Amino acid sequence: DATLLPPPERAVPVLVAAERPKMLGLAAQHADIWQTAWYGLPGAEFSRKRAAFVAACGERGGSSPAVGVAVGVSVGELDDDGRVADRSIALDAAAIAEALAAWSAQEVDHVQLGVFPLTRPRLDIVLDAIDRSRR
Q1: What's the confidence (pLDDT) of residue 65?
Q2: Contact partners, residue 32, CB within 8 Å, separation at least 6
Q3: 87/6 Cα distance (integer angstroms)
Q4: Closest by alpha carbon to 129, among 87, 78, 81, 75?
Q5: Count of CB atoms within 10 A of residue 19's CB?
Q6: Measured between alpha carbons, how far is 124 from 115 in angstroms, rounded to an integer?
Q7: Is 114 helix (H, G, I), strand (E, B) or coil?
Q8: Secondary structure of residue 80 in the 3-state scheme
Q9: Regions of the chain short of the pLDDT cut 50
Q10: Do the bridges between strand 68-75 and strand 110-115 make them parallel or antiparallel, or are there none, so unpaired?
Q11: Is 63 exposed, middle or buried (0-12, 13-18, 19+ CB in 10 A)?
Q12: Which residues on neighbouring strands pair with residue 114, listed in sequence order?
């Protein structure tokens, strides 16, 4: 029942990042968008978490398609040996564009790209990837 002043010109969507049962239930009940993170490409872990969210929606009498899905994707994260971490996408425009296509194929509505450290040269690579993915 919070009041936003000044009132927004449009409804403000509620995003809930959740993975444990109680929060999944609250997300199923109140969220416009459910978010999970941090991944590289879609895989078994994402599938498991999404299935848990869909089940939570069913328990609340809702349907998951009414709630958008957002994922956080790591870009350019390296492991201790200096290689691209398992849960990351290489800092390469083609690889990032392919990852965005893979997430789109999973019917994900929004991808949040986590690029650390965020520098101008790294951002330029990501922006190129986004342009490629939209073509």
Answers
A1: 56
A2: 13, 14, 15, 67, 68
A3: 41
A4: 75
A5: 15
A6: 11
A7: strand
A8: coil
A9: none
A10: parallel
A11: exposed
A12: 74
Structure tokens, 82 = 């200096």
The structure tokens listed for 122 are: 């790294």
Q: Which residue type occupies 95?
A: A
Q: Tokens 């995003």 — which residue?
A: 15
The one-letter amino acid at 68: G
Q: Fill in the amino acid letter for 102.
A: A
- Type of residue at 31: A
- In the block, which residue shows the tokens 């999944």? 24
Own/partner contacts of 55-58, CB < 8 Å, gap of 24 or more, are 56/21, 56/24, 56/25, 56/27, 56/28, 57/28
Q: How far apart are the C-alpha atoms of 64 and 114, rounded to whole Å?
A: 25
**Residue type (1 letter), 116:** F
What is the total residue count of the chain?
135
6: its two tokens: 């000044």
- Amino acid present at 44: A
DSSP H stretches of helix in 18-119: 21-30, 44-59, 93-105
